[in-house]
Amino acid sequence: MTDLRSSKLQAFGSASIPKLVLMFSVPAIISMCVNAFYNIVDRYFVGQGVGALGIAGITLCFPIMLFIMAMSMIIGVGGNTLFAIRLGEKKYQQASIILNNSFVLLIIMAVSAFALGEIFMDPLLRVFGASDQTLPVASSYMWIILLGAVFQTIAPGMNHFIRSMGHPKTAMLRDIVGALTNVFLDWLFIIQFHWGIEGAAWATISSQLVSSLLIMHFFIKKSTPIKINRRHLHLHFPYVRKIFILGFPPAIMQICNSLMNAILAWSLSTYGNKSLQPTVSMTGGDIAISAFGIINSVVSIAVLPLMGFVQGTQPILGYNYGAKLFDRVRGTLKFAYIYSVAFMIIAWAAIQWKAEVFVAPFAPGDLNMQTVTAWGMRVFTKALPFVPLGMVAGNFFQGTGKAGLSMFQNACRQVIMLIPFLIVMPLFFDLQGVFMAQPMADVGAAITGLLLLRWHLKKME
């Protein structure tokens, strides 16, 4: 066993870099592709069965759903970090307490999200830009989602612990089963049963229930070394405090992403009403919000697999950086840059050339929506080839233990640069400025990442 482990570690410093990157990237790419597939098929069924108004309603709910995910991340990441440390120290009793306390905290977070959501949901949706037409749709969807908030926190939160116990494939399979279940139930509830937007919501929480049940089965079966145990379910506040301290920094990005989506929805509503002609059933702002929901789904097909590929380089960068094999560090970075940029150039060219083809399935028969969305998509993806430049740099900093630089670089694209651009650009270009904000942020994050990376590589020498 020792020789096997030694040979695997030595491979980081001697094996072919492309082979290593593919070895570590493929599982991450598969998970990301499943998420992208779920995202686009979910919106497809809503577009087919409900229409553009349904996509607008779901898009308005994004900030609230992202905030719930952030609450899950605080506990999942914070608890899992502490859990993994105690496992390494062979303090299994403490590890069991941490796991069980995290489970209880995830439930508390879900109940809190449900209570606060029920109180503030409609006012928040109005702030995000909901109109008289989209508010009932968004409220109907979000009310059901809040009913299943406990499954939204347990499924992703407890999956972290499965990975830490040495079962990454088990965790991945549970993600895949949940996503495929969602797709099937979307088809069943929306297309076959004609439940409309409520069908989309029931499909989402039902699939999360399935994922949660599979995850909980793992934690109660006999072969699992550390289980859900009634004796350890009462909260130990020293551990609770540490879980929040460790989990809050990674969740900051998700919280900021929620804020960014709220500002984006408001901007789309405000400047869409100024720039687009209303229809019988939708205001100009509703059309703009629905268009962005479609754009976001299509672009995720390119960006999520890219994230999986880039993440696959992280352990290779970390090992070779620690071993001071700096030529292999540069070789890994070069490989990551060449292939990720090439992939994004292909995605960019396809979108710029045939945006209408990607849009049509989401808005069948609605030529006005297709035209607006295709135009917005072309503007939104102008700088798509620049995305890997900043992403690879942020991943390098994370893989080599530069947590502060990693957080700063990752925040550049979605927060530090995007939010100011979202506020300023529409003042000069109206709705076009809203869509221009993302490519401007992509270019700025790419330049920042390359400069920081160049500085650090020189320092490395």
TrEMBL record:
The keyword Transport is annotated on this UniProt entry: yes
Compartments in which it is found: Cell membrane
Keywords, ordered alphabetically: Antibiotic resistance, Cell membrane, Membrane, Transmembrane, Transmembrane helix, Transport
TM regions (residue ranges): 20-40, 52-85, 97-117, 137-155, 176-195, 201-220, 243-267, 287-310, 331-351, 379-399, 411-429, 435-453
GO biological process, one term: response to antibiotic
Sections of the chain in a coiled coil: none
A GO term for molecular function: antiporter activity
Pfam families: MatE (PF01554)
Main location: membrane
Entry membrane topology: Multi-pass membrane protein
GO cellular component: plasma membrane
Domain of life the protein comes from: Bacteria
Similarity comment text for this entry: Belongs to the multi antimicrobial extrusion (MATE) (TC 2.A.66.1) family. MepA subfamily.
Protein name: Multidrug export protein MepA
